[in-house]
Every structure is written in C-alpha cells, then in structure tokens.
Write a structure and sequence with these properties.
The chain contains 11 helices and 10 strands. The protein is an alpha+beta fold. The chain has 2 domains: 2-80; 107-343, Bira Bifunctional Protein, Domain 2 (BirA Bifunctional Protein, domain 2, 2-Layer Sandwich). The mean pLDDT is 89. Bound molecules: 3,4-dihydroxyphenylalanine.
Amino acid sequence: MLEQLEQFKTQADKAITSANTLQELRDVEVHFLGRRGKLALLLQQLRDLPQEERPAAGARANELKKDLIAALAHRAESLKGGTPASTSHVLDITWPGERMPYGHIHPLTRFLRLVTSIFSSMGFEIIEGPEVESTKYNFDLLNIPKDHPARDVWDTFFVRSPEGVKSAEGDLVLRTHTSPMQVRAMETRTPPVRFIVPGRVYRHEATDASHEAMFYQCEGLVIDRGIRVTDLLGTLKIFLQTLFEKKVKIRVRPEFYPFVEPGLDIDMSCLLCDGKGCPACKQSGWMEMMGSGMVHPKVLTNMGVDPKVYSGFAFGLGIDRLMMLYFGIDDVRLSYQSDMRFLEQF
Ligand code: DAH
C-alpha cells in the first residue's frame, strides 16, 4: 500500500508540472483528488488492509493529499502569472513592448504658455507673486481703501495669520486678483517697465458654468515716459490678433476700477460671426475681453513712481474664459475636475 501511495505521488507531481493551463490543472486535480479520483480509490483500499498497517498508510495518504493541494495552488499561481512552466525562464526579446500611456500638458497650462509667449515676444517680463496676499497690497495700495464700496466687488477669502504674525500689512487674504503684483514688483524695479503676472486668484463664488472660486488671471503693466491710451489699445489688439490668428476689431467702454483712471473694458469683435451678431455674443457682435486703464496717479505714487514724469497702462485678463473661447469649451469647471474624458480631448 505504501508503495502504491508513493507511485501516486510521483504521477501526481509529474501531472501538475506538465499542466500548462489552468484548465489542464483543474483536470489534474479532478483526476487525482476528485470524489472518484485516484486518491479516493486508494483510501477505499485502506479499509481492506490488516489492522496494524492501517494507521501508517492512513497518515501517509493524508500527508500526500496536503502536499498535493499545496502543489496545485502553487502551480495555479504561476499559471495565472501568464508564464507556462516550460517557458517561464525564457526571455523572448522579439515580443513587442507594451506601449506606456503618456500624459500631456493640461489645456489651461498650454494656453497660459501661449499667452505668456506672445507677451514675451513683445518684450514683456514674466513674473509671479504670492497667492496669500496682505490687504495692503490686495486693496490699500491699489487705491481701494478700507470700507470703500469697491472692496465689496471682490468676495474675499480671509486667511488666519499664523500666531503672532499680526503684520503691519493688514489681514491676510487669498488674493482676489493679480493686480497686487503691480505695486510689489515696482518695489524692486524702476521705469521703464513692461511685465505680465500670470497666476491663480480666489473669490468666494457660488460656482456655475462661468464662475469658479479659483481661477487664473494675467495682469499686465507698462510704465514709461509718455505712455498713452493708444499704446494700451495697440498692445492689446496685437495680442488678441496673434492669439486668435485673425484680424479683430476692438472697442472700449468706460468702466470703474479704482486703480486706473480712466478705466476701460475692452471688447473684441465676435470670433464666430465677425461682429454680425450670433448666440455666442448674445447678438451684440462683441465679446468682453478684459479690464484695463491708465494707471491711477495715486497708484503710481504708491509704486514710488512720479506721476508727473511717468505714465502707464494696466490690464487684467481672465485666462479661463479666454481659454474657453480659444478651445471652444462651455464650462469653466471642467478645467479643475481632472476628468480624463475631458483632458484626453486635447
Ligand atoms: N483686477 C481686476 C479684477 O480682477 C481686473 C483689472 C481691471 C486689472 C483693470 C487691471 C485693470 O490692471 O487696469 O477685476
């Protein structure tokens, strides 16, 4: 009997190593361990053994069963790994490589790079600034004094200052616009200057298809002797025409911004209908592009620049909306959701 058991083991081991698929392995299992399998038959014969031989044979049979179950499980694991036993150690260098999926730049970043490259080609310096700003730079120095109604326009997030850092610059806020960098940057520069400040800004907004609580702006500032409104208009028109690769018309409307005088809103002839009127421009033929104006003498003074000698213009571009127009996107929130179905379209 013990001899038969050893034979059984040799056969079973051989069958397990030569099973090359999970199905084959399953057949091996049924053949050796199944209810009517080889082991079951051997166990039946146990009963006919003389009393004194039974315990040893029974113990050996149990041992073999355990070994077999372990060997089957082990083999199943290696088959699941996809390498048949006969080739598991062979490296097939002709097997085609797996293509690695690779990512790309986010459409918003791509657009921002396009915008900065256009201004860069016009000689503008590109600078960045802090997203946590003080009320001094975000408001005061831009001629928006405390309690001035203009502060209400910006729905501000206030930030708790670290313990003991009650700064002379007032409360900390998440900057509501990139304009504070106008004054900050001028602390280390003297006219003539020409720079843009791209970056994130924050407002306490209820979000919808055209509003986000966090979005991108690009500020611009030019200061030199004899800068006039026509310089502002020419620069922005060239910018828009280069961006959209199309001749466009611009028009200006008076608008109030405390840090410029006069303040202007710039519209561009509708890209889709060339000014004839369509749903995209609400039949007006014009699209709102940005706020701008001639830098207020008080702000120039806050920059340490003499308004009697120098003048300048400033503008603030809403990057997200411009990007939506550029790519034909209809919901600003898509930019910040990391939804692959959206991102893979670019
Ligand atoms: N900072 C303004 C805003 O966020 C945008 C703006 C308007 C910037 C006029 C300017 C400007 O530089 O001249 O609404």
